[in-house]
Amino acid sequence: MKIFKPLLYLAILATFFGCGKRYSIVRSARGEYHIDSTLTLDSGIVKTYLPYKRKMEAQMNAVLGESAVALEKERGTESLLGNFYADAVASEARKLFSFDFTIPTTKGGLRNEIPKGKITLSTIFELMPFENELVLLKLKGTDVQQLLNFIAASNGQPVSGLQMTISDKKPVNLLINGKPFNVADTYTVLTSDYLANGGDNTKGLATPLERKTIGLRVRDALVNYVKNQTASGKVINAQLDGRIKEN
Predict the structure, then answer these.
(1) Residue 188 to residues 15, 88, 172, 199, Cα–Cα distance (Å)
(2) How far is CA 138 from CA 161, 210, 212, in A?
(3) Does 49 score more than 50 pLDDT?
């Protein structure tokens, strides 16, 4: 394996202006390094980063809570992992703002499963390694219809506050916050900035009537939810509840 990179920029000519010194680069060198088994360990570098490595590992291995079940990315219209993710984000965001339903990620955005047992900070980082922010979108009913069509056509996505049946890849029997969907109404949807910006080819979010960043990262919402459940003496026990069914 070869890595090509600028190695050294040497300032070898000093020009004096008044009482101060200014330096300018007149020549740069470029080196080629082979990354393989012939490289020897540099103890100086190890000593430099080891304290930071130990501190980071201590933080990442801190136990936040416990899951009573394995949160898996099951194939189907909903999954335990997707339900946990969407409900956790919705629960924390509702402490700040009200909204009708959430689609905080897609199935492809669920980066790792959570095994039964202890949930560490590292577990959440592996599930959500990105710095995505949560945003509120006020949408026309016609845009929400596009979003619902997208969810149905992709055989379900992680959602909370939304119920639907998928029939021939179309959404039917739609309930938002327990009320029938009305295309003439406007709705406030909680999602990530990634999806709001068109990530994962998500439909219906591109032209909101209003957009608001709420000051909460998706990962922080997940971390806070697990911590709060633990503080309340609860474990994570997600269920398949039929929020998205297939006819």
Answers:
(1) 62, 18, 20, 19
(2) 15, 5, 9
(3) yes
- Structural tokens at position 188: 């406030």
Looking up tokens 């000051």, which residue turns up?
Answer: 215
Tokens of 239: 């269920």
How does residue 20 score in pLDDT terms, banded at 50, 70 and 90? Answer: low
pTM (two decimals)? 0.81
169, two tokens: 């890849």
Q: In whole angstroms, give the CA distance from residue 74 to residue 82.
A: 9
What mean pLDDT is predicted for residues 85-106? 98
Structure tokens belonging to residue 115 = 């095994």
d(CA 148, CA 192): 16
| Domain locations in the chain as residue ranges | 2-60, 71-246
- The CATH H-level superfamily of 71-246 is 5'-Nucleotidase, C-terminal domain (3.90.780.10)
Amino acid at 104: P
100 vs 102: CA distance, rounded Å: 7
pLDDT digits (tens, 9 = 90+) for 225-247: 999 999 999 999 999 999 999 99
